[in-house]
Specification:
Strand content: 15-25%
Shape: globular
Distance between the termini: 10 Å
Keywords: Signal
Order of helices and strands: HEHHHHHEEHEEEE
Oligomer: single chain
CATH class: Alpha Beta
Structural class: alpha+beta
Radius of gyration: 16 Å
Largest sheet: 7 strands, mixed
């Protein structure tokens, strides 16, 4: 997409991040500044804690069943599972963050301890993110984990984006309780 000579490895900018991609300095600044200021907001933590309580008994079969239901509802007029994620207060907050991003943010979604969507700014292609690096390289890595994935064409947003994911941490216990992924429009940072 762009010359690698203008990119800086993110690990040089913010220690402890896991990354698959090098990012432009403007994107690194946006991640460490703007995004880091709200991705562990109390309303996000509270929504994840609530869903974790409600989903505590879920096993692999239930997660697969829900993921298949979500995929079957994408594009359908009757989509109760998708609606339950998109039509909640936290999703409204996420859409507000997309708007405040002034074209830099393409999507945002929050995941529980299983990797299931809690809230989203728009429809994701699947409900379960737990099998993907965005979840595995944040949730499984501990408090403060950040993962930047390679810039690629995103199926759900149809834009070239880099996804940055953060672990969500319970401030009382310090335990990781979920993850949040923010899609960034790559063209906004070059």
């Amino acid at each position: 997409m762009t010359s690698r000579s203008i990119l800086l490895p993110l690990t040089l900018l913010v220690g402890g991040m896991s990354h698959a991609a090098e990012v432009p300095p403007a994107m690194a600044d946006y991640i460490s500044g703007d995004l880091s200021s709200w991705v562990n907001a109390p309303r996000i933590v509270a929504a994840v804690q609530d869903q974790n309580r409600r989903h505590a008994h879920f096993d692999t079969a239930k997660v697969t069943e829900l993921d298949n239901a979500w995929r079957g509802q994408v594009g359908a007029a009757d989509a109760p599972l998708i609606d339950s994620v998109l039509q909640n207060d936290l999703s409204d907050f996420l859409r507000e963050q997309v708007s405040l991003g002034q074209g830099r943010i393409t999507e945002v979604f929050v995941m529980d301890s299983h990797g299931l969507n809690v809230a989203a700014s728009g429809v994701t292609s699947d409900y379960w993110q737990g099998d993907e690096p965005k979840f595995q390289k944040t949730f499984n890595k501990g408090a403060g984990a950040i993962f930047i994935d390679e810039i690629a064409l995103d199926e759900s947003t149809q834009t070239y984006q880099g996804q940055v994911s953060f672990s969500i941490t319970d401030p009382a216990s310090g335990d990781v309780i979920g993850a949040v992924t923010v899609g960034l429009d790559a063209s906004a940072f070059y």
